[in-house]
Amino acid sequence: MEPRANRDEQPWLGSSLPTRTALIPPLSAARWLLVLIAAAGIYFFQDFLVPVLAALVIGFASWPLYRHLLDRTGGSSTLGATIAILLILFFLVVPIAVAIAYTLDEIAIWFSWAVETNERGATTPFWIAELPLVGKWLDEQWVRYIGHPGALGELAQMVSGANIGNIYRAVLATGSGAFDLILTLLFMMIVLFFVYRDGESFAGELDKIGERILPARWERISRVVPLTIRSTVVGMTLIAIGEGIVLGTAYWIAGVPSPVTLGVITGLLALVPGGAPLAMTLVSIYLLASGSPVAGIGLFAWGSLELFIVDKTIRPRLVGGPISLPFLPTFFGLIGGVKTMGFLGLFIGPVLMALLVAIWREWVREAAGEEMSGLAAAYEPEALPEAAALETSLEGRS
């Protein structure tokens, strides 16, 4: 047996029991680890980020409708997801693809006219020169920048720094990017199928992680994010697509040249507050100036009525209230979305900006609530002695 003194001696390197506290708290370490894993995933899968975001946005926005569809299919998530994908494909993707195809054909005609005009020049259209107040000035600008041969090329060189022939070839070469767009849409539809099928289980797991990482704010964030996405998509994107279709049809009935392209432009401008009325008004002015006053007045009256009905009745019914997204975040969302994500960025960009604005407002509201609570706590001790004195006097009288 070992001597008792040896058993009582302390180890040279200290106690072997874990008596020290962790350098980084476990919750903070878990948060940073999750952030690093998410950043690594975004870096390695950045080429798939756009279709995944698009699928999540569509899934969030259409989830209430999908729940109704799921109830009608007997609760089968696979069958419900399949039917939902087919409906989105035939009623959203195919019409947009057809509109884009017609728009590219009409834009190619515009560029063909621009190339021919650059070679031969063109006289000022009669309806532009006869416009009241500004007709003479517009005629001078037309002759200066478009009228003589080579003028349009000089204007394009001055504005964009590229030759008009190169711009024309670049526009024609955009058809080569159609294959990439088709692959992106295909991947988006695949992701969307799994969002529909496994969305509930994934949302439950996400709630567990969110409540552990952000225990004080996750409940509010998980409530604000879906409502914001749904309101933005329905109140801005879908209504903008609808306004582009309705006003584009009105352009075609009124006899406006390139009605599909103008309808697409109107739909894109409808994403910005005041964009659709501006586009419709300019097209109506064109009809009035080009010798079609009946068509111009009819288009303006119909467009004004349609926009009034949409803004006052349809949008509040679909969204539950107006979209209070300021102009500047909307504009940045559109431009930044197109610049970083391409065509799908038109719809993803405003949604992301709406989320940022919503989270910012929630933080401001929470800060204001904490400030009011602090003020109430500061005044409460002063009221306690008065209340105690009043209670004592009442007891003495009784």
From TrEMBL:
Source taxon at top rank: Bacteria
Membrane topology: Multi-pass membrane protein
Keywords: Membrane, Transmembrane, Transmembrane helix
Any one annotated GO CC term: membrane
Main localization category: membrane
Lineage, broadest ranks: Bacteria, Pseudomonadati, Pseudomonadota, Alphaproteobacteria, Hyphomicrobiales
Species this chain originates from: Aquibium carbonis
Keyword RNA-binding: no
Entries under Pfam families matching the protein: AI-2E_transport (PF01594)
Matching InterPro entries: AI-2E-like
Family assignment from sequence similarity: Belongs to the autoinducer-2 exporter (AI-2E) (TC 2.A.86) family.
Membrane-traversing stretches: 48-66, 78-104, 178-196, 227-254, 260-279, 286-310, 330-360
Protein name: AI-2E family transporter
Subcellular location: Membrane
